[in-house]
Specification:
The protein has about 375 residues and is an alpha+beta fold. The chain has three domains: about 1-165, Reverse transcriptase/Diguanylate cyclase domain (Alpha-Beta Plaits); about 175-225, Orthogonal Bundle (DNA polymerase, domain 1), CATH 1.10.150.20; about 240-380, Dna Ligase, domain 1 (2-Layer Sandwich). The protein contains 15 helices and twelve strands. Helix 4 runs antiparallel to helix 6 (about 120-135), helix 11 packs across helix 12 and helix 13 (about 255-275) packs antiparallel against helix 14 (about 310-325).
Length: about 375
């Protein structure tokens, strides 16, 4: 049976969730992100993209292009809830799911075809289930490998389905801009175009004399990628090395009490994500960036590993407090909580009661899952 790989990419995910949850935003130019001088665009609805607004663009630049845009602050807890529904659909189809982010994944459905039909039928099934359970649309690329599937999923957005049979890879890729090649990068793409290579077809047929000055020893690999050659497997068991939550402040903050409040909120967010993934952390750290952009990290190992919100918040608070004692006049532009040495959460015995902190965390998680991420908040996170 021919190999079949799907790349599923939710359409304008954060912005689409906001439009779904608030019908007043449907059809409106929506930007998800923090307003202000340091704010950046986390997501842009298709309505606002018509003005040239894109993810990762500075908010000021985005609003300069579309002054009438509606700005919505990110709700990461809500996006994670929807992401879990989406990935639940994926895992109903195949265990070979490689998540790339909350809204994007590769699926190897080669073996699933015997029970569910060909890859195109499976792709349509996935799109239908996602829409049924979340109200959102997804675009899917169907191809013989990960590289071509990822390129294909972006060609017919939103709500697209692009199918590339093995015999049609060159026909699809050759006319495309070299900028479509994942991993090429903006600056390298500009260099390639200055060398007179504008399409993937030109890139795969370019002689070594042209490619070596651009890519050196990687020239053969780049040529293969431009030809759609990719033998990487879909890897469902890629281990998460770390999990974090951080925030860049609108204005620099030097008041220790205010910093600790922000840290408490970030600790709560990070540990909620940790529990949502069924993990525990063996090391708790803080990331600190001063106004002059110098960055510091402090961390402490904990034994046994934990997913207890109170423990994570307490350790993080002590780490920040000790750093602030050595930098009494420092003002911070960024603060973060970093959890590492992640392991699967241990299962309690059948009759073993939850510890006090675990009961509180379970209550918080249940309430937020039902009523939204801000339904309950710890007192020390309220500014």
């Amino acid at each position: 049976m021919a190999r079949a790989v799907l790349h599923v990419d939710m359409d304008a995910f954060y912005a689409s969730v906001e439009q779904h949850d608030d019908p007043r935003l449907v059809g409106q130019p929506v930007i998800v992100g923090w307003e202000g001088g340091r704010g950046v665009v986390a997501a842009a609805s298709y309505e606002v993209r018509r003005y040239g607004v894109r993810s990762a663009m500075p908010m000021r630049a985005a609003l300069g292009r579309c002054p009438q845009a509606i700005c919505v602050r990110p709700r990461m807890g809500r996006y994670q809830e929807v992401s879990q529904l989406v990935f639940g659909v994926f895992r109903e189809i195949t265990p070979l799911v490689e998540g790339l982010s909350l809204d994007e994944a590769f699926l190897d459905v080669t073996a699933s075809q015997a029970a569910l039909g060909d890859a195109v039928t499976i792709a349509r099934l996935i799109k239908a289930r996602i829409r049924e359970r979340t109200g959102l649309s997804a675009s899917v690329g169907v191809a013989p490998n990960k590289l071509v599937a990822k390129i294909a999923s972006d060609l017919d957005k939103p709500d697209g389905l692009t199918v590339v049979p093995a015999a049609g890879v060159h026909a699809l890729l050759d006319p495309l801009s070299v900028r479509r090649l994942p991993g090429l990068g903006r600056k390298t793409g500009e260099r390639v175009e200055r060398a007179g290579i504008r399409t993937l077809g030109e890139l795969r047929s370019a002689p070594d004399a042209v490619l070596w000055p651009l890519f050196g020893r990687y020239a053969p690999w780049v040529r293969e990628r431009a030809a759609g050659v990719d033998d990487r497997p879909v890897e469902p068991d890629l281990e998460e090395k770390s999990l974090s939550a951080e925030d860049t402040f609108e204005t620099d903050i030097g008041e220790p009490r205010q910093l600790q409040q922000h840290l408490a909120r970030l600790s709560d967010l990070a540990v909620t994500r940790l529990r949502g993934r069924g993990l525990m952390a063996g090391c708790i750290g803080v990331k600190i960036r001063r106004a002059d952009f110098s960055t510091f990290t402090r961390q402490r190992a904990v034994a046994p590993p934990t997913c207890d919100g109170r423990i994570v918040a307490s350790v993080a608070a002590r780490l920040l407090g000790r750093w602030l004692e050595t930098q009494p006049q420092a003002k911070l532009r960024l603060l973060g909580v970093v959890l590492t040495e992640l392991t699967p959460a241990a299962q309690l015995g059948l009759f073993e009661p939850l510890p006090q902190g675990g009961r509180i965390d379970a209550t918080l998680d249940a309430a937020r899952a039902r009523f939204g991420s801000r339904a309950l908040r710890r007192g020390n996170t309220i500014e």
